[in-house]
TrEMBL record:
This is Carbohydrate ABC transporter permease. It is a multi-pass membrane protein. It is found in: Cell membrane. It comes from Paenibacillus nanensis. Belongs to the binding-protein-dependent transport system permease family. CDD domains: TM_PBP2. Residues 79-270 form the ABC transmembrane type-1 domain. The chain crosses the membrane at residues 19-40, 83-104, 116-135, 147-170, 191-216, 249-270. The lineage of its organism: Bacteria, Bacillati, Bacillota, Bacilli, Bacillales.
């Protein structure tokens, strides 16, 4: 007696809306990836080949552009300046933003809602509207064309975002954790360092990532506050290549590649922390 196996095949219905979404996402990803590939590909060509055949593959790559990037325009120094300024901005933002978020999220006091309203309203103020008073302060403090001349304005500009993200995350932490910590003899500072800070690591990581990327790519502030060559960040260097070496498109493509590729690599490794920090709850189980 032969056994008959009946296989139920279900028809998968694909909605037109889903198809449209995937087509749009595929087109967006294709244009973004191809643009990055085009820049990297042209960085291995001399300026003449970039002008005449920019869309052809560099079958015979040359490294002269990368040599010139480090020897002629000293891109390594600009890399170091960007890391110092962006890293200093991140540290100050997390320090002051974490403490402010702790107060706003765990304490009830008069004017708390007003402070939140002011913080949200400050996000609507464009950066160029504060350039003149900030520049005057930097002149009085004598820190124009120094590392602090860019770190302090960027810290002030990114602090509101960090406070709101961290405060929103800390407010979800159960009050029972505080009570248990106080019963174990913890004070406010110990509670923040040993309880709230470890639980809030995803939120701190997310804030650090966004602040670093915004600070690293802040061309507007870099051109105004740190115009000296010895403290020039890498984004300001890119704007000067077109004036000093306006016809050397291969060098420009190389400088852009060296600027974008490290940020892209870092983001690929830490993108999971962005998702955790913005969507995950403070505690599980």
């Amino acid at each position: 007696m032969q056994s008959v196996t009946v296989v139920n095949k279900k028809r998968v219905q694909i909605k037109p809306g889903i198809i449209f979404i995937y087509v749009v996402l595929f087109g967006w990803a294709l244009t973004t990836i191809y643009s990055l590939f085009w820049i990297v590909n042209n960085s291995f060509k001399v300026s003449r080949d970039v002008m005449n055949s920019s869309f052809k593959l560099a079958f015979d790559p040359v490294m002269v552009n990368y040599t010139n990037a480090f020897d002629r325009i000293n891109i390594g120094r600009s890399y170091l300046n960007s890391l110092i300024m962006s890293g200093g901005t991140v540290l100050l933002v997390l320090l002051f933003g974490g403490l402010a978020a702790y107060v706003l999220s765990r304490f009830q006091f008069r004017g708390r809602r007003a402070l939140f309203s002011i913080l949200y309203a400050s996000l609507l103020i464009p950066a160029f509207a504060t350039v003149v008073p900030v520049y005057e302060l930097l002149i009085k403090w004598e820190i124009v064309n120094t590392y602090g001349g860019l770190i302090f304005p960027q810290t002030a500009g990114n602090l509101t975002f960090a406070i709101l993200v961290l405060a929103g995350y800390m407010s979800t932490i159960p009050k029972e954790l505080e009570e248990a910590a106080f019963m174990d003899g913890c004070n406010r500072l110990t509670l923040f360092m040993r309880v709230l800070l470890p639980i809030s690591r995803p939120a701190f990581a997310s804030a650090a990532i966004f602040v670093f990327l915004w600070s690293y790519n802040d061309l507007f502030s870099a051109l105004i506050f740190v115009s000296a060559e010895e403290v020039r960040p890498i984004v300001a260097l890119l704007s000067e290549i077109s004036s000093q070496y306006g016809t050397d498109f291969g060098l420009m493509a190389t400088a852009v590649s060296l600027t974008v590729i490290p940020v892209l690599i870092v983001y690929l490794f830490i993108q999971k922390y962005i998702e955790k920090g913005l969507t995950e709850g403070a505690i599980k189980g």
